[in-house]
Amino acid sequence: MVTELTKDNWSTTVTAEGIVLVDFWAAWCGPCRRFAPVFEAAAARNPDIVFGKVDTEAEQELATSFRITSIPTLMAIRDGVVVAIQPGALPEPVLDDLIAQVRTLDMAEIRRHVAGQPARR
């Protein structure tokens, strides 16, 4: 299942424990339309992951807040931490590999690394 993400449900969706994959897309974007079935098939194969889509036309504020300048862009979030941002329409094997990598991340190490970074403005 793929969830439509908006500024109203963004926070509650992406701050929860677990993995969230977000597809930033637009209806007029050809590569976005070609990536959509790949994203939806991955959602069907990985029911333990939240798959969300952000329509960059309808949710410009969200797209701007993450500096999305190319669509489609895929964002991977684990336990409330953005762990990857990948522009472009990923082929199925590459998306599956990204999912496998996100699953195996040492989140304790990631949190230590994030805590040591200066705040972004």
How would you portray this structure in words?
It is a single chain. With 121 residues, the protein is an alpha/beta fold. It has helices at residues 10-14, 30-45, 60-65, 92-103, 107-115, and strands at 2-4, 19-25, 50-55, 73-78, 81-87. The longest helix has 16 residues, at 30-45. The N and C termini lie far apart (34 Å).
Overall pLDDT: 92
First and last CA, distance = 34 Å
Rg from Cα? 14 Å
Low-pLDDT stretches are: none
State the secondary-structure class: alpha/beta
Measured by DSSP, the beta-strand proportion falls in 15-25%
Q: What topology, given as strand order, has the largest sheet?
A: 1-3-2-4-5
Major sheet description? 5 strands, mixed
Offer a concise description of the structure.
This protein has 121 residues and is α/β, with parallel strands linked by helices. It is 40% helix and 24% strand.
How would you summarize the topology of this molecule?
Elements: E1 2-4, H1 10-14, E2 19-25, H2 30-45, E3 50-55, H3 60-65, E4 73-78, E5 81-87, H4 92-103, H5 107-115
Parallel strand pairs: 1-3, 2-3
Antiparallel strand pairs: 2-4, 4-5
